[in-house]
Amino acid sequence: MDLAVPESRRAATARLDRFVTENRFTIAVVFPLVGAVTLLASAEGLLPDPLAFNPYFVLFGTLVMRLPLVAGVFPLVDRRAGLALIALAAYSYGIELLGVRTGWPYGEFAYGVDLGPMLFGEVPLGLPAFFFPLVLNAYLLVLLLLGRRAESTPLRLLATLATVVLVDLVLDPGAVAIGFWAYQDAQFYGVPWTNYAGWLLSGSVAVLVFDRGFDRAGLRRRLDSCEFMLDDLVSFVLLWGGVNLFYANWVPVGLAALLGAGLLWTDRFDFDLSETRFGSAVWR
Predict the structure, then answer these.
(1) Mean pLDDT (whole number) for 16-34
(2) Residues forming a β-bridge with 277
């Protein structure tokens, strides 16, 4: 891999695109499957310390799976988008600290393992890397699924918010099952309904910030030209769908399959195994 500093954003974009394209199968399929096995082995006591729930392994694997999304949006991060991301990072830390300390708006909960370095010893320092993609992937999927109807602001925002909640209906039960965090009260696979009410609040803010911060037309053009841009959502379906399947969380498994169907519908979850090789794949 060329380690020289790119001379321009265009050169950096081309290099990122090439790297992700050449390693799509590893990033979008191998990493989440290995991640699911590792997390399950950790939760079931099959891995010794310091391998079990190693926070740096968790953070590293997460960042690798985020690469397609990062590469996809990289050329679109201008001053306005950059300010939006900074504001949203501050917001995500603030509302998570509020949630840990007061139980509002998600319900009383506590982290069971460290997900990388912890800010103030309470919330993951890498929180934006966990939070941003949940919202941005939902936003991009909605743009693809709605097509021209996405020009309707109310429809676009409501559909994105519904997809964000759908994503969390898959994530939270799986995360609780393996012990990432735990809630004091629980109604849905170890998760209280108040958590999803909280996601309606935090998700609404995040969706609005992304919608105002990024050039929607630019995102749509990038989606059309960048086939790997939703690979992070592919990883999400494989990882958390697999975890929920192991614990027989059937409703979350079905919802993960629904997300997978949306990706298939948009030709984002379709690859030819006969043409793949370790570290690369030809995706249709």
Answers:
(1) 96
(2) 280
